[in-house]
Amino acid sequence: MAKTESSSSRVSRQDIEDKLRALQGDVQGKVDDRRSTLLLVAGGVGTALLVIFFLLGRRAGKRRSTVVEIRRV
Fold this sequence. Notes:
This protein is mostly helical. About 70% of the residues lie in helices and about 0% in strands. It has one domain (about 10-65).
């Protein structure tokens, strides 16, 4: 377990705010670094899904459609 300081030293509001801002800055920096990569990956996955669904729908349409042959006499 972590040792705590004596009860005479209080944690001020400013201490908490400073610590939270530092934490938020670290997290925000990591998110900004990876945002472009995540957007590219999401776009690629979306495009791949679109192509897959298109091809599956096209195949299903070929199986269900009736071919009518018209001959002139």
